[in-house]
């Protein structure tokens, strides 16, 4: 599953307000990133991929990935010519990673730190 487009950070409190119905009791958002129409949320329990579909975006797929199913991940920092950072996440039983591209406004080290905190449990 590849997600295309560049993500930029959004305030976790705003994301909790916008997507609160997706969260379990006591679940907290630690990082939130917005694509053009889609979003990715990193909570204390899972990663949630939000994929708005169709011309109007009224149909939405919510893909929940528990951290325990992430076998490994990789981050690639932005460079001088390639200004975007990238995240690749491998899910157990899947040889193709989920790929995510972040704009230079996203601290990829923060994304990596959130994942490390919860994947390593």
UniProtKB/TrEMBL annotation:
This is PH domain-containing protein. It comes from the Bacteria. InterPro entries: PHb, PHb_sf. Residues 3-119 form the Bacterial Pleckstrin homology domain.
